[in-house]
């Protein structure tokens, strides 16, 4: 979406109004205008003051200050470009603007000057291998440190691809900061039930392992707590913390009612509150300081209920139910948004997005393929990749479809993908790569819009049964 198109959508560019300054000591606070004209360059914008105050630390501080500006009907923002402010307004109103290089620079300037957290978040989610160096350098220039750090982490994860370009284009201090960070590590854990005591035969195998890519070997990162189960549990990473929620034990699939969080920096496990509704075989995903336990089963009955866990409050609450019951549904994040894939006989896979601000599920698109359903979904850039079984439930011939969130178009990736023992169903995206594994090998693919190309093969994960995979940023010699 161009600058001109965004402005046309809003239709709010108006002639500059004259400023009406008053003595705030002579005015009743109830008379403070609810709308504000913001003048940026030669453009002016008539906006709801509440929108600006809720979204911008700058405006929030201004209207708590008690200064005369609190009562003005017009505010001039100097040293800003109108394009950056228009992009900020687009993001605040829930749009997903497409940004070019100039847009990104001016959006970062606006996010920094006005301290607009939603715009910073949008830029973080918009980052990819084409714009990460620009975002990193610009965020450092304007002191937008949250975005600066996330861009540095993104580049560090792809440093083998970027090193030459980084050292040519960036100042030495920015290069040094990138190199001081630790890259994300590929981590896996097998399906284990709870353990009665340390003498149990399978206790030694109850470990979370990391892949040392340089040595091509798997190493133990930590032991699972004795009461933890990863069998049909919810396992995910949020803000570099590993969460294990629920799970089952016993032949009757009795639900485990304890949940855990692993702090990789402190190397400690902590119990957390379990969901209000006990469940297993559900999807667990984290976003913006919250976990979402989606669907699942209880007493062998599929559920549509969804719960959200607030990390800061250590509390769960029910949110909008799925449109229909689903167990083990494919779930992914893309552009900082949550998507799920639900089956609907016959041969229909519906993609829904969860909208946290509205607390509802919105249909995005539908895929219909003969004798096939989406079993795994991963996000890369603005693409959702859906892995589905081959004809006649042939899981050894995995087929892949790509849905582009920007264009709304489906693309079938050419050929079949070997999916021996479900390796593709464990795909984890890191930069422009996808890491998959099974007992035989760990395989890294290079991901682009239309193909997944094998890049390198490493040692397989020496565990049988289901496997959970994820990325963690482990502490290096200098803790970040």
Overview of the molecule:
- This protein is an alpha+beta fold and 480 residues long.
- The protein has a domain at 3-126: Potassium Channel Kv1.1, Chain A (2-Layer Sandwich), CATH 3.30.710.10.
- Helices cover 21% and strands 36% of the residues.
- The strands form nine sheets. Strands 24, 25, 26, 27 and 28 form a five-stranded antiparallel sheet that branches. Strands 1-3-2-4 form a four-stranded mixed sheet.
- A hairpin with a 2-residue loop joins strand 20 (330-334) and strand 21.
- Helix 5 (101-114) runs antiparallel to helix 6, helix 6 (117-126) packs parallel to helix 8 (145-157) and helix 7 (132-142) runs antiparallel to helix 8 (145-157).
- The longest helix is centred in the first third of the chain and has 14 residues, at 101-114.
- It is globular.
- The two termini are 37 Å apart.
- Residues 1-31 have low confidence and may be disordered.
Short descriptors:
480 residues; alpha+beta; 4-stranded mixed sheet
List the helices and strands and how they pair.
Elements: H1 3-10, E1 13-14, E2 35-40, E3 43-48, H2 49-55, H3 57-62, E4 74-77, H4 82-92, H5 101-114, H6 117-126, H7 132-142, H8 145-157, H9 159-169, H10 172-180, E5 185-190, E6 207-212, E7 217-223, E8 234-238, E9 241-245, E10 248-249, E11 254-255, E12 259-263, E13 268-272, E14 283-287, E15 290-294, E16 297-298, E17 301-302, E18 306-310, E19 315-319, E20 330-334, E21 337-344, E22 348-355, E23 360-368, E24 374-380, E25 383-390, E26 394-404, E27 410-412, E28 417-418, E29 428-430, E30 433-437, E31 441-447, E32 452-459, E33 467-472
Parallel strand pairs: 2-4
Antiparallel strand pairs: 1-3, 2-3, 5-6, 5-33, 6-7, 8-9, 9-12, 10-11, 12-13, 14-15, 15-18, 16-17, 18-19, 20-21, 21-22, 22-23, 24-25, 25-26, 26-27, 26-28, 29-30, 30-31, 31-32
Helix pairs in contact: 1-4, 4-5, 5-6, 5-7, 6-8, 7-8
